[in-house]
Design a protein that fits this description.
Elements: E1 2-5, H1 7-20, H2 25-41, E2 49-54, H3 58-72, E3 76-81, H4 90-102, E4 106-108, E5 118-122, H5 134-145, E6 149-153, E7 175-179, E8 182-183, H6 184-187, H7 191-195, E9 197-201, H8 207-212, E10 217-219, E11 242-246, H9 253-265, E12 270-275, H10 280-286, E13 291-294, H11 301-313, E14 316-319, H12 327-339, E15 344-346, H13 349-359, H14 365-373, E16 380-382, H15 386-393, H16 397-402, H17 404-412, E17 418-421, E18 427-430, E19 433-436, H18 449-462, H19 467-489, H20 496-510
Parallel strand pairs: 1-8, 2-3, 2-5, 3-4, 5-6, 6-7, 7-9, 10-19, 11-12, 11-14, 12-13, 14-15, 15-16, 16-17
Antiparallel strand pairs: 1-10, 17-18, 18-19
């Protein structure tokens, strides 16, 4: 697990390091510069022509120092300084003076893009809080027009460290070397697209300085697959949990099949599919391992009694994939939310039905979020894509996309609900904690992919993992399966069943 911080948290880490722990800022700057130079030397040659494009803040000082280190090691380096030298920070003035003393060519506000094939972007760092304009915007535009390979220092200039948004214009980097902690804006789109290949470099921020900033956003790496539930050697099918999948209206058997099989593939001991009776032949043919029952008559006295037995049987309940929005589907959802005593994963039509219920309460987004927090259950996982979330909380899709972290925080504030907000970068939120998923690819933007995800998360919960942790690790595992599938099928041809089939490959290789 690694933390991802916003600009305010990174400033707090830097301030605590320099002002409280008394590690000089210039020491951090030199280490940052050496890390930039180290990454660059793996990618460039002595014959390359390098230009360090530097602003007057400390980010510019990092770039000047990196250019000087490369210059002293025999690389062809020049510096372009943007802005007034008198307005530069103390450390950047010193780096500029050193660069002059060692003889590096320095130009001021006069960029000739055709002369260089390697660019160091050190115009803005994490502190950018205004649109890029004027001479700086012109230089960034010129940089983006070249074929030069671009190395960005800490952040691609013009990208917000908080949410990845573009401040009017931004540098398109091939490589970004960021310092101390990963930045949220490098993980979220469009920032992730502008950043290129990212290196998180340790430049000496003490762990105590990081912890005092109270980072609350994290992401996983392959090492986190070690958190998967242990398989007891003497376990039996009941040991590994019972997943009830309430899904699939008539003619919509695919959704419940994908969820149910994904649950089995991720280790659930037993999976029961509760669906329309017409789906029986398909489910029992494609997934004979699954228990089958129909919900067709669940509104009758006997049917209600049988439904309650199904709910009591389960370790975890999935409701919604392909369920439709009929009165019967609404009754199933209401019964589950009212009576279930186990974790519930609410997906697809389950979320749309819940949105319709909220329509009778209010159109105000805050009131709707308050109503959701009053569901009265501690372990409800909602897995909406952006349009479903928009329907649920009455916030436009584009507003959600531009403010993924803030929206996730608002949804999960002061309640126990777990939100899995699905997009190119899925965000999982629970109370004050947020997870940003970095696995997966655009080939997974295909029908049924979300159904597979619900089954994966359900299986982890069934095996005893805490719901929030299961949601985070489930999203990561699902994305890895998508990556394995894309490696074999390509992103154009990828379909949900390919993701499903790749779960076993991920677990076999890494678990």
């Amino acid at each position: 697990m690694y933390y991802a911080v916003n600009s305010s948290q990174m400033k707090s880490i830097d301030h605590y390091t320099t002002e409280v722990m008394k590690i000089p800022s210039l020491v951090l700057m030199e280490r940052a510069a050496y890390e930039v130079a180290a990454v660059m030397k793996q990618k460039i040659a002595k014959t390359d022509r390098i230009l360090a494009v530097c602003g007057n803040g400390n980010n510019g000082g990092d770039g000047i120092a990196a250019g000087r280190i490369l210059y002293l090691q025999g690389y062809q380096v020049a510096i372009l300084f943007i802005g007034e030298e008198e307005a530069a920070t103390r450390q950047t003035k010193l780096q500029l003076e050193i660069a002059k003393n060692v003889g590096i060519p320095i130009a001021y506000n006069n960029y000739k893009p055709g002369e260089y094939n390697i660019l160091i972007d050190a115009i803005f760092g994490v502190g950018l809080s205004r649109p890029v304009a004027g001479e700086q915007a012109k230089i960034i535009e010129a940089m983006n027009r070249t074929d030069a390979v671009v190395f960005s220092v800490d952040m691609p200039s013009g990208i917000s460290a908080d949410d990845g948004s573009v401040a009017n214009i931004a540098v398109r980097a091939d490589y970004t070397i960021t310092f101390g902690c990963q930045k949220q804006g490098l993980l979220l789109y469009p920032g992730a697209e502008y950043a290129g290949e990212i290196t998180v470099a340790d430049i000496g921020f003490p762990e105590l300085a990081v912890q005092q900033a109270e980072p609350d956003t994290f992401y996983y790496s392959m090492e986190d697959l070690k958190q998967l539930p242990a398989r007891k050697r003497n376990g039996h099918k009941g040991t590994f949990g019972k997943v009830l999948v309430i899904a699939g209206a008539k003619g919509m058997s695919g959704a419940c099949y994908l969820s149910a099989k994904a649950a089995y593939r991720t280790g659930a001991g037993l999976v029961k599919v509760l669906t329309a009776s017409d789906n029986r032949p398909i489910i029992q043919t494609l997934l004979p391992e699954a228990l089958f029952s129909s919900y067709d008559d669940c509104q009758s006295i006997e049917g209600t009694k049988e439904l309650m037995e199904h709910l009591s049987w389960a370790t975890v309940i999935v409701i919604g994939p392909g369920l439709g929005q009929s009165e019967l589907a609404a009754h199933l959802l209401q019964t589950v939310l009212k009576t279930a005593r186990v974790p519930v994963i609410l997906d697809a039509d389950g979320i749309n039905l819940l949105a319709k219920r909220l329509d009778t309460i209010s159109e105000d987004s805050n009131a709707r979020m308050d109503a959701l927090s009053g569901l009265g259950m501690d372990s409800v996982i909602l897995t909406p894509h952006l349009l479903e979330l928009s329907r649920l909380i009455h916030v436009p899709v584009e507003q959600i996309r531009k403010n993924m972290i803030d929206t996730a925080s608002q949804c999960s504030y002061n309640n126990n609900l777990i939100y899995v907000i699905k997009d190119a970068r899925t965000v999982v939120a629970h109370q004050k904690d947020r997870y940003i998923n970095v696995s997966g690819n655009h080939g997974m933007a295909t029908g049924g992919s979300g159904d597979v995800l619900t089954g994966v998360i359900a299986a982890l919960v069934a095996q005893g993992m805490a719901p929030y942790k299961a949601a985070c690790l489930g999203v990561y595992l699902h994305g890895l399966a998508g990556n394995y599938a894309a490696a074999e099928k390509g992103t154009y041809s990828l379909i949900a069943s390919d993701i499903l089939d790749s779960i076993e490959q991920v677990l076999l290789t890494n678990a």
